[in-house]
Specification:
146 residues, CBS domain-containing protein (chains A, B), CBS_dom (chains A, B), alpha/beta, CBS_dom_sf (chains A, B), homodimer
């Protein structure tokens, strides 16, 4: 089995998508992460769910736990409101050296090793344009049944 | 809202659980990750789904993509069989400096920042013993509705 056999259609966001909308897409469809595409529809970034959540965490809290302790419970409940109308582009974390992207020919083992190495529960499948994504659970279900 | 309000009961595995069984638990219950507890029931590790998958990726393939390309499709389909009866203890990756574990008093913002920082889509909630876990999607649903 190859990426072509494992991929599923997958929603995308763009660099201009408001970050709050990206978080809602992730939450509403219970996705493991999001694919951010550029103007030509090619994957620009693949964000695991934790890194979509990171878009919504105020910059001053991202790396310093001590600062999060100083925010009271009422304000901590509504931290996503601080996002305002900022876009994915405004908040995108530095991109890793290796994007979780494969060709349709990638084997199950190649995809598993890539997910483990990049800590990404989804990989984008690209052949010219974006063909879809392989999710961690989609892959696991298939390899455990093999 | 605090971790105590956000936590859900969460399955655990131990260091002696066969790695293949851990992968099955993750897949069957569609979990974002697994909590590995020690003999006293305290969290020893919190493994995001990608790191549970990593348990099943042969060591020689984990860091070197070139080696995965050399495995043919038929063998790549059944890579999990190489696990044999090895346990979570045998295959556990080096543990990060910071475990995604909070007290029941942690705020939504503290939990979100911790998930983003540790790249873990679940955090264990501990008060004496393990009380449960907060998942990324459970947290997102609540903070987006707040």
């Amino acid at each position: 089995m190859r990426a072509a056999d494992l991929l599923v259609p997958y929603p995308t966001v763009t660099l201009s998508t408001p970050a709050i909308e990206a978080a809602r897409i992730l939450a509403d469809a219970d996705l493991p992460g999001l694919i951010v595409v550029d103007d030509r529809g090619a994957p620009f970034a693949v964000l695991p769910g934790t890194q979509v959540l990171r878009l919504a965490v105020p910059i001053y809290c991202q790396d310093d736990p001590a600062l999060t302790y100083m925010v009271d419970e009422a304000a901590a409940d509504v931290f996503v409101r601080e996002l305002g109308d900022r876009t994915v582009r405004d908040l995108l974390p530095p991109q890793p050296h290796e994007l979780p992207v494969v060709s349709p020919q990638a084997t199950a083992l190649e995809i598993a090793a890539l997910m483990a190495r990049t800590r990404s529960p989804l990989v984008a499948v690209v052949d010219g344009g974006l063909q879809g994504a392989v999710t961690l659970h989609g892959l696991l279900d298939r390899v455990l049944a093999a």
